[in-house]
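HUMAN: Can I see a protein plus its fold?

ASSISTANT:
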Amino acid sequence: MFFSLFGKKGEPKKTENKNKVPIARQPVKPSPATPVASPHRGEDSLDFSAYVPPPPSEPLPVSPAPAPAPQSAPREAEVAPAVPPLDVSALASSLAGQPGPVPSIEASTVADDVATVIEETATLFASGEVEQALARLSNAVREGELGNSALQAWLMLFDLYQHLGMREEFEALALEFVVKFERSAPAWIESDERHDPALATGGIGYFALSGMLTGASAPELEKLRNTPGQTVRIECGRLLGLDGPGCRLLRDALLSIRDAGKEVMLSGESRLLAFLERFCQAGKIETDAAAWALLLDVYRTLDLKDKFEEAAVDYAVTFEVSPPSWESQSRAEARGSAVLRPVEAADQALVLSGELIGANETLAKQLQDWAAANKMLVIDMSRATRVDPATAGLMLSVLSGLQATGATIQIHGANELIRALFSVTGLNKIARIIPRK
């Protein structure tokens, strides 16, 4: 009975089932498995050794598929951080409005600020707003962020102190200048030391009119009469005004100089003409006749015949008299601010001095005549103290025309404030600007 039940049919199947047991261990491997059972499983078979439980309901092949993804993701994570830090930091700086690590941007900003300070100071000074120019420039110098324009700004400040007579501030700045730039500072120029550069050629005296000319100016104008030299040069740029008695005293002094056989030369004459032309208008009978007489004498001295004749007619109409006659000067070539003096080899310089304000035809004519008479137009501005915007514009217009005809132009000795103004107007592109030594 024992062999009939288990031995005949179960023995060969039992051996076959033992060989298939290792194959049935599929949970270790993700490949699908099917239940292995005896093909003869029936009611008469009690051998359960080959039974394998059924696999889970969810298919195992799905789980191995996402396995490569977790392995590739860490690789991307290891490579990606190398690039984002550069882009993100740059973007964050720009969005946050921070300066960022770009030095060229900061340098250009400072350069623009310095250029603005230089231009503003030059324009304010040229317009006569000297105190405002001083405040603007001194603050910039004290702040110290002037870049490559620091030297120019300091030299402009020296000129402002000199112009305003601020000697203590000038000397204090000189001490700081030596330490900062390791070079000698500009020297203070006493007013009495400001001799006419033309005196170097001999024979030319110099006298400066200043303040208000009134009847009380007789002692001062007596000094004008006694000025030594065969030629007397009179600086009018510091004149603040004059009245009828002052006009009379000045005219008498000029006549006295001529009677002594001396020649009269005027510089800064535009200021004197501005005062006189304001007084001497046709039909204005209340104007002192001495002002008319002085105006006509100045026109003669400057060799402005057309202006003289026009004023002579106005004078005749106003006072119902015959118009004065023109009397040309013995040396018409020496007129206005022009002084002959050697500068270089065969070149001669047109000397402009004092405050050049109120652009007029006199200056334009001087520039044109001097360019026609010399192979090179050399303008000496070592004694010019200020140029207003209108005069700078006139010079730019006239010199541009002369350059177009082939003239070579040089401007010598202009102070730093005037040089800065010429840069603002563009005159430095027309003429070669040679700074003071």
